[in-house]
Description:
- By secondary structure, this protein is mostly helical.
- The chain folds into two domains: about 1-150, TerB-like (Orthogonal Bundle), CATH 1.10.3680; about 160-233, Helix Hairpins, CATH 1.10.287.
- The chain is about 75% helix and about 0% strand.
- It contains ten helices and no strands.
- The protein has helices spanning about 1-60, 65-80, 80-95, 100-110, 115-130, 135-150, 155-160, 170-175, 185-195, 205-230.
- α1 (about 1-60) runs antiparallel to α4 (about 100-110), α1 (about 1-60) packs parallel to α5 (about 115-130) and α5 (about 115-130) runs antiparallel to α6 (about 135-150).
Amino acid sequence: MYKWILAFIGFYIFRFPGFFIGMFIGHQIDKNNFTKLGNSIKKEFELNLLALASILIKSDGEVSKQELQFVRNYFISIYGQYRANILFKEFNTNIDKKNISAKQICNFFLKRTTYGTRLQLIHFLFNIAKADGSISKAEIEKLLEFTQLLNISLADFESIKAMFFKSSDSDYKILEVDKNCSNEDLKKAYRELAKKHHPDKVQNLGDVYVKAAKEKFSKIQAAYENIKKQRGI
């Protein structure tokens, strides 16, 4: 916006040289404003994620130190100690005491994120719940509630859940197929999941999210390779 305003002002005063100088200066102003807007949206994203994590941690009536530390380490890995502390302080001062509902927070993510990003959020929240060594029934129920509010399918929820609960059929659950499915259906399911959960889906969120997405993606690949080995494919 500013580049055109300053370009025309420059043209009016200095003709063509002023036009290009004004456009250049205006472009720098626009770029700076866009960066500030991007940082503001990212900050809002992280504050809402902290709020969702807080609801999950409190859901079983026990505030686990391990779960809190997992969240703290996560934000420090993104921002560094100093900026993470500022974010925690703002959350504790302005967000946590307001008791914002899970529905309000999930609506924020619904309006601003892709399906792939929301899948990554659920996987991240499962990691928080698992940080103290086990995931309680209350935490599972809360994660299911988040899943429904984020318009994530039950099949995708069960797939992510199976990554944290090992059983004789967990590999099949991860791939969202029945044990008796054909080899062709197995391959098709793997291709669809690989596309849905590919780390590129969260590339815009930064390296930490991409790393977490790669870990999830590797579990899908491992499940597929395990079943292929069992079937002799």
